[in-house]
Amino acid sequence: MTEQIYSLWQRMEQGWALGDGETFASVFAEDVDFVTVRGEELFGRRAVAQGHGQLFAGPYRDTKLTTEISLIRPLTDDVSVVHVTSSIAPAGITTHAQAVVVRRADGWEIAAFHNMIPKGKS
């Protein structure tokens, strides 16, 4: 389970490195509830892909995402809460996220994601 959950964030990093919103968003459930660092609510994988595609074409072009999982807390055999710190270089941005990951028939995916920039870290 742990390796499969870590692989979600590895794929997210790969999508970011490619500047590809579709690849980045592929780790999220079709019906994901996603809150951005600005508090905007995105509903669904398509919205996450489009939003990040715009970021990769604009202010985050040629940046690198590095993630570090600090907590995986199983709630059931098929649901876990995950805490992640992410860094965006060279932008110098650090974010903290809390995610709910779920096991589906074809593997793990992120069903809910809340991302924020800690005070004093932007």
UniProtKB/TrEMBL annotation:
Residues 7-110 form the DUF4440 domain. Pfam families: DUF4440. It comes from the Bacteria. Gene3D superfamilies: 3.10.450.50. SUPFAM superfamilies: NTF2-like. This is SgcJ/EcaC family oxidoreductase. It comes from Lentzea alba. The lineage of its organism: Bacteria, Bacillati, Actinomycetota, Actinomycetes, Pseudonocardiales.
